[in-house]
Write a structure and sequence with these properties.
Length: 453
């Protein structure tokens, strides 16, 4: 696809000359002589580069530069060659600077350099994000081999994928593996945690917003969809998004287009969408908690990630991986004693891989200068005795919480939260209202106590 350039120059002859020359260089070029005309063009067709005259009949070029430089690179045009003008343009965000009369060879070099530098900046942001996401899928159990088989089958296509699995099983690793094995692997992998973004900001973060679309929107902002352009957008915990956002996401999947908040112009969403959930979306769709049409779109290709208790053969490999790749003290090379490994393999891991990682990293610290991690360094829940059984019964004055032994405060919190989740069929918003806390904090408590579906 040819890169699009907008030339905003009030001299009609120079404007035509620049447009013709840039088209010969292979660009898709449009010319405008007034800001009012250019503004309409930008609203309908976002350019890759703007060539902007410093002085226009209906606007000040330097002022426009300050407003627009965060949207696309800008090359400033001026008839007044001076160090002061050049410094002013660069300080206000200009990518390059050209003096009239424009030298054609210089025009080609400057435009090419501005576009290449913009691409380098995007690539830099991509590589930084990629460093934080590129983690291996460790293990060779039959259960994990089946997951890898499904990843290989779907990665080469652009099909939407739904990843299902309990909390802590590594759904984001699966999403990242799909991206890395796809033709989009050289572009961004953008992960969005649908639980942690505030509800009133979620739509703006995902789709972006136009200037003035709400009180604090003092400038136009690109959303995460645009950050993932030509790459992969990973929507974690998609079952938590509200109905209005579900409808807009469905439009993206059906038409490949979206609008920023407060905008009227459609943008192309050239992204692959991978979603994940630890909830039963089918049941939620049946009960009206989740749009059934969106569910059927997401459900086109499903990968179910097995819990760690079904991957016992991978526990040794995972533990060794965490020992070799922890990001704190590395003074002593560590290894697991056979008895310690046996204990790890005998445990049921309700918190899955996330829980195993925490236990191993704690054991590394507790083992101090010893090169061997043994049983006494493993802080598994069984070391604390059995979890007291709990019963909660309504009474005339409220609720009675019965526990099998003298509980800790954490025991009481976990027992009460588990009871509320059961009473309200796992509906987090209702549980949050009962607890008097935000849904986001409720989600964190569910994760903390290993009570996810």
């Amino acid at each position: 696809m040819r890169q699009r350039i907008l030339v905003l120059e009030d001299d009609k002859i120079l404007n035509r000359l620049l447009v013709d020359q840039l088209e010969r260089f292979g660009y898709d070029v449009a010319g405008r002589t007034r800001w009012s005309e250019a503004e309409r063009f930008i609203d309908e067709n976002e350019p890759d580069l703007l060539i902007l005259d410093c002085r226009l009949p209906d606007a000040d070029g330097i002022e426009l530069l300050s407003r627009l430089n965060n949207q696309f690179p800008i090359v400033m045009l001026t008839a007044f060659a001076s160090v002061e003008n050049a410094v002013s343009a660069i300080k206000n965000g200009a990518a390059e600077y050209l003096v009239k009369p424009v030298n054609i060879d210089e025009l080609e070099v400057v435009v090419k350099r501005a576009l290449e530098n913009a691409a380098i900046r995007r690539e830099h942001r991509f590589l930084k994000s990629r460093m934080s996401h590129a983690a291996p899928m460790v293990g060779n159990s039959p259960a994990l081999s089946e997951v890898n088989r499904l990843i290989d089958a779907v990665a080469a296509s652009d099909m939407t994928v739904l990843i299902q699995g309990e909390s802590g099983v590594g759904k984001e690793l699966v999403a990242n593996a799909i991206h890395e094995r796809s033709s989009r692997s050289s572009r961004n992998f953008v992960a969005v945690d649908c639980c942690t973004l505030q509800k009133h900001l979620f739509e703006s973060e995902l789709f972006g917003h136009e200037k003035g679309s709400f009180t604090s929107a003092d400038r136009q902002k690109n959303g995460l969809i645009e950050g993932a352009i030509e790459g992969t957008l990973f929507l974690d915990e998609i079952g938590e998004i509200e109905g209005a956002v579900q409808a807009k996401l469905l439009r993206v999947l059906e038409t490949g287009r979206f609008r920023r908040v407060g905008g009227t112009r459609d943008h192309v969403a050239n992204v692959r969408i991978v979603a994940a959930t630890n909830r039963d979306l089918s049941q939620m769709a049946t009960s009206g908690q989740f749009r059934s049409d969106l569910f059927y779109r997401l459900n086109a290709f499903v990968i179910t990630v097995p819990p760690l208790r079904d991957r016992q053969g991978d526990i040794a490999s995972l533990a060794s991986h965490f020992i070799s790749n922890h990001d704190f003290s590395r003074r002593v090379e560590k290894m697991l004693a056979p008895t310690a490994l046996s204990r790890l393999e005998a445990y049921s891991w309700p918190g899955n891989i996330r829980e195993l990682k925490n236990v191993v990293e704690r054991a590394i610290i507790l083992s101090g200068n010893s090169p061997v991690i043994d049983e006494r360094h493993l802080a598994l829940p069984s070391d604390l005795g059995p979890m007291p059984s709990a019963s909660i019964q309504p009474t005339a004055n409220g609720f009675f919480l019965g526990l099998g032994q003298e509980p800790t405060l954490e025991d009481i919190k976990k027992a009460y939260l588990a009871d509320l989740l059961e009473r309200h069929a796992g509906h987090r918003a209702r549980v949050a209202r009962v607890l008097g806390i935000s849904e986001r904090n409720t989600y964190r408590l569910i994760q903390k106590f290993g009570l996810g579906e």
